[in-house]
Amino acid sequence: MASRIAGKNIVITGASSGIGEIAAKQLAARGARVLLLARRADELERVKKEIEAEGGECWVHAADLSVEAEVEGAVKAILAAHERVDVLVNNAGRSIRRLVRESLDRFHDYQRTMQINYFGPVKLTLGLLPKMLEQKQGHIINVSSYSTLIPVPRFAAYVASKSALEGFSQSLAAELVGQDIHVTVINFPLVKTPMTAPTAAYKYLKQMDVEEAATWIVKAIEKRPARMATRIGEAWAVANAALPMLTNQFTARLFLNRAKRLQKMVEAEKAASSE
Question: Which pLDDT value is given to residue 202?
Fold first, then answer.
């Protein structure tokens, strides 16, 4: 079987930091030709230099995925500069942690979350899919969260955007059956990245290391599964499908109690640091 990584052109969004940056480095080390996409051109150039210093091949295509015209520009630039697009990894995203009742006058939270987590990836996919159809081969990886498998309070905007992306992924996968173009959804657990850092309570929770998370993307390209998730996430999804009312009630109490404990820990740390 030919390598699904070495020599392949792999587009990775959100590649200026976190999972995207580390995945790009891991893939380049395995012989991939990585195409970095994010809005911060200076950070992309930093990652590019680090990859090339290790002998990897790398290109930068800066764009803000929340701006439709910039996504279109990135697609045109990628197609003009590269003969093939073998893999698209829609990794970029944003998260908002806020109760719905505290968001009644913040509809923009939902709009901007959908823009970066759903419309951006869809726009990019629609732009690059014709090339995959033309070459009769390709792979689209959409990064999601275990919060779509487990009823999680405080993340309505984020979960809605990722659920939309998963729905798109499933329908697209069904349409592409038999065409050697694969679709994978990755349901990451909580990962220690710059996106989670602003939430003080997360430091007290178990988080997946970013290096390990990046290996999931590598494995997804190698094995092309329909979904990658933790066993707990998969089990919870089955339970939620079979007994949604009980699962919702259980997780609501679980997360409420945990939130209270975490808040006490945060407040205790603040008090100790002010002494």
Answer: 58
